[in-house]
Amino acid sequence: REYKVISALGPTGFPVAKTYGLCLDDSVIGTWFYIMDMVEGRILWDQTLPQCAPAERNAIFKAKIKTLADLHNTDYEAIGLGDYGKPGNYMSRQVDRWTKQYKASETAHIEDMERLIDWLPKSLPAQERTSIVHGDYRLDNMVIHPTEARVIAVLDWELGTLGEPLADFTYLLMNWVNGTIAALPDLKAHGIPTIEEAVEIYCERTGRSGIHDLDWFFAYNMFRLAGICQGIVGRVRDGTANHPQAAAMAERVPLLATSAWKYAQKAGA
Q1: Contact criterion met (CB below 8 Å) for 51 and 147
Q2: I want to staple 17 with a disulfide (CB 3.0 to 4.6 A). Which of 36, 53, 107, 247 is the partner?
């Protein structure tokens, strides 16, 4: 799936690593594999970009948002990705998926998670558009040009599919409401767009007049993150993983659930 989407996007000019071949013969290395280009550039792990001047931070953030908009604007049918995923009911399927993962990994009863599990499927926003979605679009999943504020490759497509583009974009916005960016005292002085400016940049690029159900999507994304964290805790419990941050993940789950429920209440729960 990763090879397919990268190979299809490359010729459109969207920034991905060039692919060279896919091997489906298990006897070569024991599994399927593909070869892609080594893209020389910067992987920026700290979302606040402490090593950059404000003007460069601003340019990098705008490039990151515009690149995601370009992905969502891509005609997936025209580039042969009509069968890359199911086009409809994306949010319903995602809520169901993360509910099942959370329940399979559950180690403690969290009332806010139970409320979300009940409320989210009953309040699903209408899906107005279908696009290619990345599924884990964030700054450290892309390569930035060595000297320019430009995205030269988007990486890690294992969660990619066809779905609701707003799920992708609002996941990116999580850092403004529940991440390192949220802790900055003055975004303007730091050079990072505010959440309102980020929404404006994305909407202008995708031809939208605004983002509907923003609080619902924030609730969903925090619920999803809680499910991901609980999955790590569950795998450690079951002896199938040895994650150095397992204890911290266990502490994060109820905090994420509480935050998610607060946004759910803002959305009308």
Answers
A1: no
A2: 36
pLDDT above 70 (res 243): no
Backbone conformation region of residue 43, classed left if phi is above 0, alpha if psi is from -120 to 50, else beta: beta
- CA–CA dist 60, 191 (Å, integer): 10
Please state at what angle helix 214-237 crosses helix 90-105, rounded to 10 degrees: 30
**What is the spatial distance between Cα 198 and Cα 60, in angstroms, rounded to a whole number?**
12
pLDDT tens digits for range 93-125: 999 999 999 999 999 999 999 999 999 999 999
CA-to-CA distance for 260 and 153, rounded, in angstroms? Answer: 31
Can you tell me the distance from the alpha carbon of 233 to that of 261, in angstroms, rounded to the nearest whole number? 21
Q: For residues 138 and 225, is the Cβ–Cβ distance under 8 A?
A: no
Name every residue whose Cβ is closer than 8 Å to that of residue 187 and which is 6 or more positions away in sequence: 181, 193, 194
Q: Which segment of 85-99, 143-157, 197-211, 245-259 scores lowest on mean pLDDT?
A: 245-259
Mean pLDDT value of segment 208-236: 93
- Can you read off the two tokens belonging to residue 75? 């005609």
Task: Please provide residue 144's backbone torsions phi and psi, each rounded to the nearest 5 degrees.
Answer: -95, 140
Q: Report the distance separating Cα 176 and Cα 47, nearest Å.
A: 10
Cβ-proximal residues to 177 (8 Å cutoff; 6+ apart), any chain: 195, 218
pTM: 0.93
| Lookup result for tokens 């707003």 | 166
Helix (H) or strand (E) holding 232, with range, is: helix 214-237
Q: For residue 250, what pLDDT band results from cuts at 50, 70 and 90? A: confident
Q: What is the pLDDT of residues 162-198, one digit of tens each?
A: 999 999 999 999 999 988 898 899 999 999 999 999 9
